[in-house]
Amino acid sequence: GAGVSQSPSNKVTEKGKDVELRCDPISGHTALYWYRQSLGQGLEFLIYFQGNSAPDKSGLPSDRFSAERTGGSVSTLTIQRTQQEDSAVYLCASSPREEIAGVREQYFGPGTRLTVT
Amino acid sequence: QKEVEQNSGPLSVPEGAIASLNCTYSDRGSQSFFWYRQYSGKSPELIMFIYSNGDKEDGRFTAQLNKASQYVSLLIRDSQPSDSATYLCAVNLGGTYKYIFGTGTRLKVLA
Known about the structure:
Strand content of chain B: over 45%
Structural class of chain A: mainly beta
Largest sheet of chain A: 6 strands, mixed
Distance between the termini of chain A: 37 Å
Oligomer: heterodimer
Helix content of chain A: under 10%
Number of helices of chain A: 0
Low-confidence stretches of chain A: none
Distance between the termini of chain B: 40 Å
Largest interface: A-B, 23 and 21 residues
Shape of chain A: globular
Number of strands of chain A: 10
Number of helices of chain B: 0
């Protein structure tokens, strides 16, 4: 079946502009995550959504970052007034509600490479 | 602060050898542990997960978990040049959907 998809794959923007990054999770997956990966770094958790519950926004680095998930499916991560330090690969992952022996697996999309000039 | 620690490497092993990748974690409430492989410029792909103390084998890969020592490892037998990648360790905090990732270990398998 189809995996997690993200768009655009690459985005170059000027400092100060707003950007929107899109994630389409695997059909039926109830949990959706956004991570950021800077060059040579690990994955930095940003936000996750689970069903109709309030999202966990504890990883968002500033109030310039926001995300929404419409209809329990597609999610958009918005970065306002972009800064050069926002340059990174933004990865989306989804996870099914069902557990396998108490374990929920994450499946990652291909990522969006954001470059702020 | 909940942390997952990995040696950044690179870890270089000759082709056919066993590669051993290690990870420690700080939160004793952690319940499940994941190993991802990430090729340069690509997204992470799940190799395997483990949640019980001991060993779990899947093909050439073996995950080892020691909750008392807060230690998880990944062994790759008969390493191949195609195994050259960054290996990320991730921990799922018990009762949550939250995952904490290590910064990864870069593995180089020399032909």
